[in-house]
Design brief:
The protein contains five helices and eight strands. It is of the alpha/beta class. The chain has a single domain, classed as Alpha/beta knot (3-Layer(aba) Sandwich), CATH 3.40.1280.10. α1 runs parallel beside α5. The longest helix is centred in the C-terminal third of the chain and has 15 residues.
Length: 175
């Protein structure tokens, strides 16, 4: 339905939370290297990333390789200094949300490549720097999904819940 792009994520538990969020919302997750952590099976499990088996997760050597796989997606850069509020836009299936690394955000030269109308922010109180990356992804992904009528939701009376078991590491490397 939607795409979440993490540009050079640094903190494994944040990425783990986002993988879980994507599994539960149907978003596809795209990880752009370099990553600030290893993605071997032991590290993935330790960081809580074992939800990867329930999510579509792809890994790319750079942003250009990632964007080449999303030719029809409208890319929205989520950045604290952007002018447009995330909730003021109309989203559609296939849109992609680009988030920067936890400690520095998206580089200015990358932001300049996207139309200014595709730079969005999540409002915060004055003087605050940013939200946790996982929280920011959740806010934007759920708003976009809400606008699409929560497409794909299985009603509770028909859902069957399965525990996440230990399985092989399944994040695809698209290098």
């Amino acid at each position: 339905m939607f795409h979440v792009i993490l540009y050079q994520p640094q903190i494994p538990p944040n990425t783990g939370n986002i993988i879980r969020l994507c599994a539960n919302t149907g978003c596809r997750l795209h990880l752009v290297e370099p990553l600030g952590f290893e993605l071997d099976e032991a590290s993935v499990r330790r960081a809580g990333l074992d939800y990867a088996e329930l999510a579509v997760v792809r890994r790319y050597p750079n942003l250009a390789a990632c964007l080449a796989q999303l030719p029809d997606a409208r890319i929205f850069a989520v950045e604290t200094g952007a002018g447009a509020c995330y909730s003021g836009l109309k989203y559609r299936a296939g849109d992609a949300f680009l988030f920067g690394p936890e400690t520095r955000g998206l580089p200015a030269e990358l932001l300049q490549q996207l139309p200014i109308g595709r730079h969005i922010r999540i409002p915060m109180r004055d003087g605050n720097r940013s939200l946790n990356l996982g929280n920011a992804v959740a806010v934007v992904a759920y708003e976009a999904w809400r606008q699409c009528g929560f497409a794909g939701v299985i009603e509770p009376e028909t859902a069957s819940h399965q525990a996440v078991g230990s399985s092989l590491y399944r994040i695809r490397n698209n290098s």
